[in-house]
Amino acid sequence: MFHENFREGVISAKQFKREDIEYLLKKSKEMLKTKNSNLLNGKILATLFFEPSTRTRLSFESAMYRLGGNVIGFHSSDVSSIKKGESIADTIRTVENYSDCIVMRHSLEGAARMASKFSQVPIINAGSGSGEHPTQGLLDLLTITEEFGSLDNLNIGLMGDLKYGRTVHSLSILLSNFDVNVYFISPIELKMRNRDKDYLRQQHMKYKEITDYRKILSTLDVLYMTRIQKERFIDLEEYEKVKGYYIFRKSDLDDTKDNFRLLHPLPRTTEISPDIDHYDKTIYFKQTYYGIPMRKAILAELMRD
Amino acid sequence: MFHENFREGVISAKQFKREDIEYLLKKSKEMLKTKNSNLLNGKILATLFFEPSTRTRLSFESAMYRLGGNVIGFHSSDVSSIKKGESIADTIRTVENYSDCIVMRHSLEGAARMASKFSQVPIINAGSGSGEHPTQGLLDLLTITEEFGSLDNLNIGLMGDLKYGRTVHSLSILLSNFDVNVYFISPIELKMRNRDKDYLRQQHMKYKEITDYRKILSTLDVLYMTRIQKERFIDLEEYEKVKGYYIFRKSDLDDTKDNFRLLHPLPRTTEISPDIDHYDKTIYFKQTYYGIPMRKAILAELMRD
Amino acid sequence: MFHENFREGVISAKQFKREDIEYLLKKSKEMLKTKNSNLLNGKILATLFFEPSTRTRLSFESAMYRLGGNVIGFHSSDVSSIKKGESIADTIRTVENYSDCIVMRHSLEGAARMASKFSQVPIINAGSGSGEHPTQGLLDLLTITEEFGSLDNLNIGLMGDLKYGRTVHSLSILLSNFDVNVYFISPIELKMRNRDKDYLRQQHMKYKEITDYRKILSTLDVLYMTRIQKERFIDLEEYEKVKGYYIFRKSDLDDTKDNFRLLHPLPRTTEISPDIDHYDKTIYFKQTYYGIPMRKAILAELMRD
Above 0.85 for ipTM, yes or no? Predict the structure, then answer.
């Protein structure tokens, strides 16, 4: 089913309607039960990371190996033909001949969509500039549903860099298919962009924009924090103004509900104090664990015969 | 048969006589029929890329996986012991203990030959400076024969940087085993080197050197374009003089025969206008596709038990 | 047995008592007999190299493939989330969710030990700053026992950078479990550190510190040379003073016993003249060969079900 709707791959969270998401969540839960399989035996995944990554790349590679497949790729535009002046389109039209699916990260916002126009194998967007990171959003949903059983009726805060943060863009789009109450929490300078909010309003999402998370912290089921991403700022003075804006500490955790959960796509820098890592309420490392079953589910849908 | 003649690997196109080439073309065509096999199960290929590469490295890796083998390697001399001052000879005498075959790219012209002297496993030259790139030449021949049925009696133009272009060196050497008419088309500054022409004359190759491709374009069956390679110029002023020398456009394509084919080893920069990419006469992306069966054939010859 | 004692991995040579070492040597010898197996089918090894490496990384990867497993990883801190400011602890708590064992190299001396505190999968220390490199020491022991049958009663010289050289630290700790006579041969500036000597004295190791190897060369069974490591010096003037301090030549080799063996962990720069590489007494390339069975033995112990 998913396979039929998404022949060109996973480019944007907007491709996914509620039933698609629920299908993928169900498939991911199945993947959690079997560590290894031969589902993608003989298949090759290409991981093209024009921007650096640890988590996302290794997570896709691990998922592919767990399904019996193999991986080729590059991890830096320095070591590839890009250095010789090749266009993304040409790289894609080459690599599609070597692989059955391409996972791609690039600093330009429209890169994955553009790539999918040229590719005859499915493209997976593993981060396109400040735009989107849909598979991260999907694994975030898997994490939340594993903790809460369902998404509906949850109070969810998305906090940090909502302007440049591609993970919060994809996650909020996905959440707009469910009956959730969302708080967008950010410094004024890093508010969610109008074009993103326009889409969410069309989707009838219930959201509020606030600056001080302390006012609503005790009502939240989930707080999803993000890093202020230095690499997205053109003006470093702007970055210096906001970099330490939010720091979540033990005293904050004490103010939360019993079943409260703190998520973060990682990497983090200073925004979450490491001394709360061991509490049951902080699940950002568990969250990385859910990356494997979700990515296995996606890869299997896109490549299985 | 090939295996007997090439125990030390694939270093230069000069190793290949007509019957060797025809044998490899036949084997490649067989490889086209079976996407995956277990022929190289348990074998390990080492890909040592001292110079950056996308196409060649990923193509070899994909070919190796399609044959059931595994791959180790490095993609930049920055991340290897080279940085600590190790010689190529020492690197090879180490890596031969970890692998069954070594694919190697290096900026020095004699690097692969030197490596083969120290190695007890076969070495494949994946590009040695401005010298040669024999497996590219072999896949180029596969591409042409798949399009034309045979190589004999074709009019073939090789155009661009004939001085520093290692792919045209290997391709012209291979072509010298067949009954072809060759045009070497380049700016004066980038003409084929005398030592290369001396070899081709010994081989009784029929060739002409010209500057303006338009004069003979309508007679050509195949035009093989190459990039002017900025990284080979010591003097960037020299590069600036010739970089935009040839640009192949739609109007050129209109002047060609019905069965004309335009090839390019890629990456390209500005020398072929992207607006002709979708025509049947332009087959540079199809050409990358033929890299897989040819490299599968070579790897199988060098490593199978 | 080994498995029971080393659940957290291979961090330091100090973990190994004589019976552990003998067990691993026995297992390595078994591994020498079967090139490939399926012992680690479905397992994933993560190779996290924050510092550059050819030998150690490729050796672990080759060993893992020979056992039927797969490999993920990064080879430079440039291409990973480290660049975004992530801590080692966070990287480890992420990657443990993607893999069954982590091999790690880092420029900080305590890095591997720290990582093992956070990890739920075994950590293998593949070099921690100037500290240790225990698997190198283990393969060095395998090399010596393969040549001499046993370790006891040998005269062994460790020469070069004994202050910053992590391989000599691990090797001397391992040797302290056997009845050997050790000479520490170095410039005054690069003598073995006091804390290391304190440990060896506690272990009742018989050692002498000397500067001129020529005085005892004719009595040695084994000379283990190391590179003066430029990258460990903060003051390059200090490096310049000692860099060419020892150069082992043909005339030295002539002064050695018939069964003398010269080892080196490689890479070498100028400290061993390449014109003696082909003598039976120089076995540094054979030594790299023994890296595979020893690492296969270690990986199998840490990951097999």
Answer: yes
